[in-house]
Every structure is written in C-alpha cells, then in structure tokens.
Amino acid sequence: MANNSNSSFVADLSSQITLYSPIIIIIMGNIGCILNFMTFTSRKLIRTSYSLYCLSSTVFDLLTLDFGALTRLLIDHFGYNIQNYSQVYCKIRFYLINTFPTSSTCFIVLAAMDRYLSTSSKLKYRSFATRKRAICLILISLFICILFYAHYLVFADLRPTCSIQPGIYSLFTVIYSLVVTSFIPHFLMLYFGFGTLYHIRTARHRTVAVFNTQQNRRQRTEIQLVTMTLFQVTISTILIGARMAYYSYNVITANAVKTSDQKTLDTFFSELTTQLFYLNYAKSFYIYTLSSRVFRRILIVRVTQLSQRCFCQQSRHHVTRT
Question: What keywords are annotated for this sequence in UniProt (predicted)?
Fold first, then answer.
C-alpha cells in the first residue's frame, strides 16, 4: 500500500510539473525574449558581432518555447493530438522541436567563440570577431542545423501514434542527441569560456600603458559581455547536463526489467528534465540582467525610451481629439 501511495504521489507530482512549469516557462521566456530584442538592438550593442549571435539565439529560443514547449503542454493536458492523425505534422514537429533548440545552442557557441576571439592578443584572431563574418557564420550554421535533423522527416511516422522508428534508429537518435546536441556544443562553450578568461587574465598582466577614457569604457563593455557569456554557458551546461544524464541512464537501462515504481520514477525524471530543457531556452534574459551592469543599464534606457514614445503618442492623440 505504501508503494502504491508513493507511486500515486510521484505520478500526481509529475502531472503538476508538466502543467504549471511550461506555462511559467513560456510566459517568462517570451517576456525575456522581447526584452532581449529591445536591449541587443540598442545603438551600443547592435554594432557588435556578439549581439548578432545573441539576437539569432533569441529568435530560436522564442521558436523553441512557442512551438516546442507549447505543443508539449497542449499534448499533455489539453488533448491536442493532431500529431497522431497527421503524418505530415508528425514529421514536421519531430524535426522542428529538435532543429529550433539546436540552432539556439549553436548561436550561443558562436557567441562564446566570438568573445574568445575578440579577447585574443593576436590580431588575426580578433579580426574574425566582426559583424560581416558573424552574418556569414550565422547563415552557415543555420544551414547545417537544418540538415542535421532531416532524418526525422524520413523516420518519424504514425506507428500508430506519432513516434520514431523503434530499434537501432531509436538508439541512434538518443546517442545522436547526447553527442551532437549536448556534449559537443557544451564542451565548446566551456572551452571558449575558460579560454576567454585566460585571455583576459593574460591581457591584464601584459597591459602597462594608460588607457584613455574611451578605451577604458570599451574594455569594461567587453568584460561585461564576457561575463554574460560565461554565466550563460555555465547555467546552460547544468540544465542540459541534467537532460543528458537522463538520456544516458535511459540508454544504459534500456534492456533492464523495471518494476512499476521504477517506471513511475523514470517518467517523473523524464518530465522534470524536459522542463529543465525548455527552461534553458527561457533563461538568457534573466542571466544577462543578473550578470551584467551594462546590459541592465541599456535595458533601462530602452524601456524608458519606449515608455516615453508611447506616452508622447498618447498625448498627441489626446490633443488631436480635443
């Protein structure tokens, strides 16, 4: 009886998590993405290659939340089962819920690489951190991400509900996600992140000249952008790492005989890590705000400007009517 009671509690908790967590994540994520757009399109940041990567990542964060997380919520709690009746939608959904988050992660890797190159002591490396090269890398990376998950368009189908082909291909998709979506990009993020820290420390020891005010301001901005990137990389690695750990466990125990209690716990951790996965694409604005004074200052200026503009338009409209 105690085991049944515990299983029932875990199942109820899992249901509550899949209902309320995505609602909060989607709302907060959308607000954060909008404020990211406002901040990174400011005059001070839009000139940097770093802002282009962050804006690109924000676009795919928004798509991940408003398509991936939202359709998952509708499927789990609101009877939205079109994927089980439409073969085309089944294939497209599998494809997009993997392509969108991978694209976002890819642009964060590029942002980390941009900070790594821009803080290098070698001019030839710093010359790669330009807007023109950033646009080229964004387009190339997007094309690669589009191709990476094309196999879902072939192997996802109605069996009789929407699922991928069982057996070898199912195992392949798990390992593929572990390596391509999780391990490689987050290894690169950490590599570029720690490499950037090394560049900053060596630059401080090497610098002996007195900088003018403009150079000092530029250097402070660079350090703030690096800080934002490092916090983003660290939190992202933790959140995706939880999902990666569950996938690894799933592969290792794939052929194990499990009790009903173990299956209930597996379902719970699957749902929990899924929410942590989507949380990763709702967090960027809040990480930037907490970690960077420059970002906060620019955000306040942009919000103030928008508020004043709206107030002026309302005043003009009122004067016109009177």
Answer: Membrane, Transmembrane, Transmembrane helix
